[in-house]
Amino acid sequence: MHQTAAEILLNKEVLRNTGAAYFLMQLEATSIAATARPGQFLMLECGDDCVLRRPLSIYGLHANKRIDLLYRVIIAGDGTATGKGTAWLSQRKKGDSVNLIGPLGNGFTIEAKAKRLLLVAGGIGIAPLRLLAAQALSEGRQVTLLLGARNAAGMIPETMIPSGATRVIVTDDGSAGRKGTVTDVLPPYLKDADQVFACGPLAMLAQLTRTPDIRSRPVQVSLEVRMGCGTGACYGCSIRTAHGMKRICREGPIFDIKDIIWQEVSI
Questions:
Q1: What pTM did the predictor assign?
Q2: How confident is the model at residue 226 (pLDDT cuts 50, 70, 90)?
Q3: Are 100 and 120 within one domain?
Q4: Does residue 15 sit in the same domain as residue 133?
């Protein structure tokens, strides 16, 4: 784990729809990038008005020097950003710096024998899965990526997905790809998957546990929740698991889906 002031190389809006804007930020952070793994995250300082840092999953890595972050800014009806931390981030320019702590948490684990991976992303849940897909493809594995959004306007551009991955688009209203949710279309893809990885709203992940045959496959999920310290000191992000209370920032954010006591997760 390192703390550093990272220079911003890029910070641009890549998608905007009703209620949210998505930004891609690239940072020069060699000390962190050199040891980061898919599934880990950073804690970012977001200006003097934010007491707590903001956790963001690592979206991309470049030459063990640069880090990509994909983050969402919630937009009110009048067009103003409502999240203080992410609004501050969205206003940073190339050449500015951001104070980071990371890499934090555990990462995804790909089994050596797993050749066909199924990735399930809901909304901003694509953030940690994109880096996992890139790693798996570089190792010669097959990747199928189910991408869910409310509508076509909420789907990230195809250019932001690693080439080589089989991309399946699903929208609630059917305005792009298949109509429904990613859990609706999931079952047929499970039969060929050696491992499953998922990230998205907690309600989506809880629904995933009720998918037929899901427990016959090894499934890892990335939990995205509010965090206090991000290092395990405050215990504010603890959840109950089959092995007792665990901190999402420390023992997570990656968990075996079967270990989580989903009835006690606040959704």
A1: 0.95
A2: confident
A3: no
A4: no
